Amino acid sequence: MEEKKANSLSCPVCSALHIPQKQNLKNGIFMGTCQSCGHFFKFRCSNSVESSITITVNGKSYSVGSEYSGSTTLNSFLRDSRISTGTKYMCKEGGCGTCLVQAKLYEPITMEKQSYAVNSCLVPLFSCDGWEVTTIEGVDSTSVQAVPKRLAQYNGSQCGFCSPGQVMNIHALLDYHGGAVTKQMVEDASDSVICRCTGFRPILDAMKSFAEDVPDIEDVHTKRCDRTGQTCTGSCHKQSSQLALKDAQWFKPSTVPDLIKMIKDNKGKNYRLVFGNTGFGVYKELDPKNFDVLIDLRGVTELYGIDFDPTIVLGSGLSLSQLYDVLYRGSNEPQFGYFKEMCKIISKVATSSVRNLGTWAGNLMLKHKHPEFQSDIYTMLEAVRAQLNIVLNGETRVIPVSEFLSQDMTDSVIVAMFLNAVPDSHHIRVYKVNKRTQSAHSDVNAGMNFDIDVTQNFRVKSQPTIVFGGISKSFVHATKTEEYLVGKALGDQNTLIGK
Ligand SMILES: Cc1cc2nc3c(=O)[nH]c(=O)nc-3n(C[C@H](O)[C@H](O)[C@H](O)COP(=O)(O)OP(=O)(O)OC[C@H]3O[C@@H](n4cnc5c(N)ncnc54)[C@H](O)[C@@H]3O)c2cc1C
């Protein structure tokens, strides 16, 4: 009997490919007759093969499997099966927000599942294994406290097309914060859904009527394990598995070693890593339908790691919203005040619902594939001189972000980033120039990192970092200006006019 990974299996006689289905497997062994040459053969599968995933919508559980293609989105599943026709779609790029639903996702700070508004038009159906989804049909619409009723009372719907998205957006926000939201939080979240007829004022008035103006995000609380009673380490995870779909293989690794193995097994094949899949909203070539093998990173627990002692390590599975939360909490620590600058920029990336699913690592990879992409995250991480932990061909490497774009990332995974304590003499600023303050790509962005002696007319002590995005695909650093400024006094007019 041959030892083989559970993927497409090749007949040892005629090489015809077969996808093992669960019913053909017994004790991890696939037995079957080749449909091409009739040879009877056996293979041992290394992962558990599943034939379906389970998704709960409005409290009802659905089992979905190979009757759907790997590129099916949560939105088309909900609408085509008539489970939720109240969930709309329009742009299919994560831009308009009419497709918003509420999803319970793993949240690494509290180590619990939390509610987030997500763009169902970008979420691959097979990412949703174990998700609890709430759509507009599952929302209380009659009580005084109900979001739909409040929207109606404040005349917040005119044509009504965006109303389900508006409701789900705030419903998820209220759920996440246990009802305790501030007006600012509501306003910040309003970037997720575009309304073209009310002018937004009545929608904002309706949603802000839920605000209590609580002063701060609640304290981190530690979750106890139901099984052991110990502090949850987040290490209880499902076994790695895979789904054989009608047009693709969907792999679900649960550990980094399993992930590396799956990448190795699929080397040379038309595969892609998937996290939030929001990159598809920007670059259509990422459409899951263009790939034979999809490797879903959401279940890999190590990628959610957060460590502050002694180095700051932030896992690549942190969504932009989660990254914001972690940085916001750490920003009052000595030598980490620059986290406030990072938060300022993160809050201007995309919309809050895209940030709820999209990761900083996925953003960096968009920049890697498309150097012309005006990534705010790349510019920010380059300005703060972050380092990346990458697994390349099974080997772990730590590289500065400045080397990332020239790194061959074939068959590689970004595992985490490292951030450093920065002495108070360093001044870090990040800027974004865009057409609107919310929901718009940068025309140009910039990041500066200067070590300055303020007692000597703001003398630049060492080579600063001056980074720009959106200028051209090859321009990142203003290298000559960086070199010129070393030792110069910024308070001196001659520095500004000098060459
Ligand atoms: C409407 C909209 C507006 C946006 N606006 C902005 C903006 O203003 N500024 C900005 O900077 N960005 C913007 N973005 C981009 C957004 O930030 C990215 O889409 C998101 O961060 C990608 O993360 P993801 O987890 O969804 O990646 P995915 O879409 O799942 O993956 C993207 C790519 O990264 C690869 N990948 C993912 N994770 C890893 C990993 N750990 N290791 C190796 N490869 C990996 C995937 O294989 C894929 O090639 C916008 C996106 C949308 C949809």
Tell me what you see in this structure.
This protein is α+β, with helices and mostly antiparallel strands. The chain has 14 helices and 25 strands. It has helices at 74-80, 147-153, 163-176, 183-189, 201-208, 256-265, 320-330, 339-346, 352-357, 360-369, 376-383, 401-404, 479-484, 493-497, and strands at residues 2-3, 9-10, 17-18, 25-26, 29-33, 40-44, 48-50, 52-57, 60-65, 100-107, 112-119, 132-134, 241-244, 249-252, 271-274, 293-296, 306-307, 312-315, 387-392, 395-400, 412-419, 426-434, 442-453, 459-460, 465-469. Strands 7-13-14-16-15 form a five-stranded mixed beta sheet, covered by helices on one side. Helix 2 (147-153) packs across helix 5 and helix 7 (320-330) runs antiparallel to helix 8. The longest helix is centred in the middle third of the chain and has 14 residues, at 163-176. The radius of gyration is 25 Å and the shape is globular. Bound molecules: flavin-adenine dinucleotide. Flavin-adenine dinucleotide is lined by residues 93-95, 272-282, 286, 297, 316, 320, 349-350, 354, 357-359, 361-363, 365-366, 375-377, 413-414, 441.
